[in-house]
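Blinded run. Sample ID left blank on purpose so nobody reads anything into the name before looking at the predicted structure. Input follows.
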Amino acid sequence: MSVAGQHIILGVTGSIAAYKAVLLLRELTARGAVVTVVMSGNAEHFVAPLTFRTLSGRPVLSSLFDPQSEDAVEHVALAERAQAFVVAPATANLLAKAAHGIADDFLTTLLLAARCPILIAPAMDGGMWDHAAVQANVETLRERGVTVLEPEAGALASGLSGRGRLPETETLVEAVERALTPRRDLVGERVLVTSGPTREPIDPVRYLSNRSSGKMGHAVATAALRRGAEVVLISGPTTLKPPAGAVYVPVQTAEEMREAALQHLAAATVVIKAAAVADYRVEKPSATKIKSGGKNLGLTLSLVPNPDILKELAQKKGGAFLVGFAAETNDLRAHATDKLRAKAIDLLVANDVSRHDIGFEADDNQVILLDRWGGTQELPRMTKIQVAHAILDRVLALRPTPEPRRTSSR
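Blinded prediction complete.
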């Protein structure tokens, strides 16, 4: 779900990473969220409340007994109005208070009153994250349904290096959007997604490829993660950042994508092959750069077919549900129907890539879903994340109810 129109409480504690909360606030408001910032007393030593008030356009709350704040004595009502509660950054002290129900300021009192999804993004220094007490508090919070993100590793404020950095803004926003998603109908599923184009080398500096941006495949991976699935994303070269929480496998060529897909196939319960794989590769790529022989001289390349990854996955998928894509420029339904039968897959997503407003490189898509049981569903133009959810909805509607699976801890 998008954060647009959602009321979000942003809690900020006394960490050097508090400046990143400013970036998070700016991104959330830019996406249309209504954000109320609640600061601990120590947070004000790092960022002035005026900064948050200016960016949010709303009062910044910090004291239970502030006579200037109408909301200060209405912490229960404020908590009830919120669709999500995010604490970023959260100190080890905040984790301890939240785990043990201590409410000695506005922020911790609000945490007790909140009934919306709570997301906590810790930031701390000097090996504190690995301390047994901190880990026990994190485990307690997670057992209660609170989402506690893993801090990132890297250089810390003290000059030490280790795990304790606040995740980047994009990761935090993605986690908030995932927390706002009401459906968790893919918990226990293992979804394998392929995305992007492949590059087939001509020589060390040239290659054959296509216009796929990877936006559709990455959207499918994002949607599956938000609905609780474990996701492996195998992607050709794109400018996109993989969604937080996915196991990301970068590849270049069709053969590399094939090997990665087969490697992860056995563990998958759903396979969605959204990648635009090059149909051909150069038979003998040059080991050195091919020199241009002049404007009037041509270049002849000998091409051979690449492996048909989709067809091979269909033959080896076992009990997994397999979804393929058909990018067509004419006779969309006819070509898609032929591909569905030829590949022997469960569901085919067909889209017209001759249009500039949908398909390759666009943010929107308009597709037809055809299944092997003869069903057809035409979707209107919508964003690719909406298309991704529609595809997952169709998978769940068509697939027999699977046996219960054990879930891994992430």
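Unblinding after everyone has recorded impressions. Confidence is low (pLDDT under 50) at residues 403-410.
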